[in-house]
Amino acid sequence: MKLVIAVIQPHKLEAVLKELDKAEIHLKTVSNVLGCGRQKGKTEIYRGHKETGNLIKKVRLEIAVNEQFVEPTIKAIVAGAQTKQIGDGKIFVMSLDDCVRIRTGERGGVAIG
C-alpha cells in the first residue's frame, strides 16, 4: 500500500480529477493549502489576480492506493497537472503501513478498496 501526495496548481485540479477518473482512481482527498517551492513566493497570476508573498495557493491531493495503482495514479496526475512551467508541483509516494475502514473494521489493501 502506498500514499500518493500531490501538490498542484489550483487551476489544474479539474484536469487532474478527470485524468484520475479515466485511470479508475476514485478515492481521494483534496485540500486547499499554502506553500512555496522554487518560486520562492514570486508573483504569480491566477485567474486574473496577482498572487504575491512567500506562500502561494496550491491544492493537495492525498490518494491511498494498492501497489498496482501507484504508477497509473502518478501518470494521471502528471497528465492533468503538467504545464512544463515552474510551479507545476510535486508528487510524493510514501509507504502506508496500514489502513482501517471504520465502518467494517477491515484492514490493509481490502480497506483501501
What can you see in these coordinates?
This protein has 113 residues and is α+β, with helices and mostly antiparallel strands. It is built from 3 helices and 6 strands, in the order E-H-E-E-E-E-H-E-H. The strands form 2 sheets. Strands 2-5-1-6 form a 4-stranded antiparallel β-sheet, covered by helices on one side. Strand 3 (44-46) and strand 4 form a beta hairpin. Helix 1 (13-22) runs antiparallel to helix 2 (70-81). The longest helix is centred in the C-terminal third of the chain and has 12 residues, at 70-81. The protein is elongated and about 45 Å long.
Label the overall shape.
elongated
| CATH class (first level) name | Alpha Beta
Percent range for β-strand residues: 25-35%
The amount of helix comes to: 10-25%
Flag low-confidence runs: none
Count the E strands: 6
Find the CATH topology.
Alpha-Beta Plaits
Distance between the termini: 11 Å
Strand arrangement, largest sheet? 2-5-1-6
Structural class: alpha+beta
Please write the string of helix (H) and strand (E) elements: EHEEEEHEH
Radius of gyration: 15 Å
The main sheet comes to: 4 strands, antiparallel
Report the total helices: 3
CATH architecture annotation = 2-Layer Sandwich
Mean model confidence by pLDDT:
90
Count of discrete structural domains? 1
List keywords for this structure.
alpha+beta; four-stranded antiparallel beta sheet; two-stranded antiparallel ribbon; 3 helices; 6 strands; elongated
Briefly characterize the structure.
Helix content is 23%, strand content 33%. By secondary structure, the protein is an alpha+beta fold.
